[in-house]
Design brief:
The chain has about 375 residues and is α/β, with parallel strands linked by helices. It has twelve helices and twelve strands.
Length: about 375
Amino acid sequence: MSDNLIRLSKSCIGDAEKRAVMGVLDREYLGMGSEVQQFEEVLSEFFGRPTVCVINGTAALHLSLQACGIGVGDEVLVPSLTYVASFQAISATGAKPVACDINEIYLIDCDDAEKRITKNTKAIMPVHYTGGVGNLDILYRFANKYNLRVIEDAAHALGTVYNSQRVGSFGDISCFSFDGIKNITSGEGGCIVTDDEAILKKARDARLLGVVKDTDKRYLGERSWDFDTTAQGWRFHMSNIMAAIGIEQLKRFPKFAKKRQQLAKQYDNLFSSHLNIHPVPRNYDTVVPHIYVVRIPGINNKSDIKKKLLQKGIMVGYHYQPNHWLNFFQDKKNAPLPITDNIFPELMSLPLHPELTKINVKYVASELIKLIS
């Protein structure tokens, strides 16, 4: 890959992360152990409530749903405009993901979701697309009205603040991702954040193949030889290598967050007077964006523009192909999703990561404006 290519996203790894990984390799205990425990502790301090680390964000969603008792015959409301991981996490439990439409700020529309509720609906999974959360008070009132669990897919929203509180520090259950290009990374990885002790206990056991209290042994560098399992488990635990990276990344997060917000604001300013390039509406004083998305109404040559920008050394993408378009999740009985269907073809994601410069952003914006004009 050319050094001059402006990448859509990238991992931002420094010497501290490399030294931390080498420390784990030197100790030769690579699985789940003390580093994972330490990462959970610093994350719990960050969110102000207990945290359980797992192998990735999808596993965090899956285990949260399972811990809520959601399974075969149940239904979960979820916006179609999300990565397929959200839907796969639901279907992995045996439950049915019910695709919902989005509102004017590209988040799940509670009015539309209400029309799709059945006697089998057990939970709602709002997706914090691009880092925005919308009006969570309305969403939680909706969930309370229908006695639904709320599993927030907060993979994009690490650091975002709502009503002066960090996302993850309140609410029912929040799930985060630490994959290679998220707001912080642990290489792979994710976490579950909640005050619900029953959920935490079930998730701790389930991530280690359901072995009861195996977490306590792993933290001490030991194994469970005589043990019991009482529920379905998975090999979803985090490794010390991943946790070592995550610990150092969290230390750098304030700088990462500030840079992401500054770059997103710059994009907004550069597009502010353009009639045909509409940024996703976000307040970057409170939102820490994972991706930066614009809507280009009427565009019918998106792939052509993508190729031309690549020729200029600029990578762009599309987040995300709606899940109700995918063969595995198509449901002809489900009511249409007109807003999602109309908006997705006009969406384009532009480069955003902490190593991007203001000069890069200006160049990306100017080249896109030239092509659109």
